[in-house]
Amino acid sequence: MLILPPRQELRSRPIETERLLLFPIDGSDGPEIWHAVSSSRSALQRWLPWVQFHTDAAASTRFAEACASDWEHGRALRFVIRERAHRSFAGVVGLESCVHIHRSCELGYWLRRESTGRGLMTEACRAVLTFAFQQMGAHRVRVAAATDNAASLAVIGRLGFRFEGIARQAEWCDGRWLDHGVFALLATDPR
């Protein structure tokens, strides 16, 4: 079974990296999430089907509140990514679709446009993967990305995931079908 620490514990003592702080998403994060999605919509909408439904600030608040509920019910653990230097909101990284009996979950992530191209997502994902394997007791973490999303595939490659196949037309997004490259990392895989 997966071990999920209390959300409030990590709100007071976030995951830290050299440049980042990762806090469990809270309802109070809604306005910053809205601003980030709104200002990065054209970049995010190309790869993330939920962006088209994220139409107002209330949607961000509902999402943030759902994140807290998902954590409490063991379904998903999602984190706000903040830059340590000035605590600015950079994006979201999460462990989705937690399946306790199989000790597995899926990695998901996005960055606001201003935070891309600096290695922040690789750093955030690496910290979340360490958390998943060492703190939660995960055995398998899966990740998928569109086969033409070079930036996301580069993150996945830097993290050491192993390619498992192509999921054809896996997602309808921004008016087109996306094929997904599917990858996984096991607790037993060398890092």
UniProtKB/TrEMBL annotation:
The lineage of its organism: Bacteria, Pseudomonadati, Myxococcota, Polyangia, Polyangiales. Residues 31-179 form the N-acetyltransferase domain. This is Ribosomal-protein-serine acetyltransferase. Keywords: Transferase. Pfam families: Acetyltransf_3. One of its GO terms (cellular component) is cytoplasm. InterPro entries: Acyl_CoA_acyltransferase, GNAT_dom, Ribosomal_N-acetyltransferase. The keyword Transferase applies. One of its GO terms (molecular function) is protein N-terminal-serine acetyltransferase activity.
